Amino acid sequence: MAEPEFSAKGVRIERWTRSLTRAGEVLIKDGRLALLTSNGREIDSAPVDSVSTGRPWLPWLAKDDRTVARLNGTRYRLTMGGEPGRSRGPDLTQRFLQAIRQTTHGAHS
Asked: What is the pTM of this model?
């Protein structure tokens, strides 16, 4: 079984004003991005090369631990770093964005 390219637990996943989970998981594995609830139920997933990601544009949302991902036409706000004893949110956010870029770039090489 292949290791995931990126995995972060304790992620707050919101569909803008609606919180879907406060301790979810973001997983990139086998070229797919999956957003999971704390009990492992899939919220949404899509091939990485069809996902767009970036930083929030609004100043009050653009904290270092937050990113926005669009999967299947739905925008999700991801707040990283909620799991105690793990990498801090800004570090996880940078690793997530880098993993998306590398996976997308690798798919087109």
From this structure: 0.84
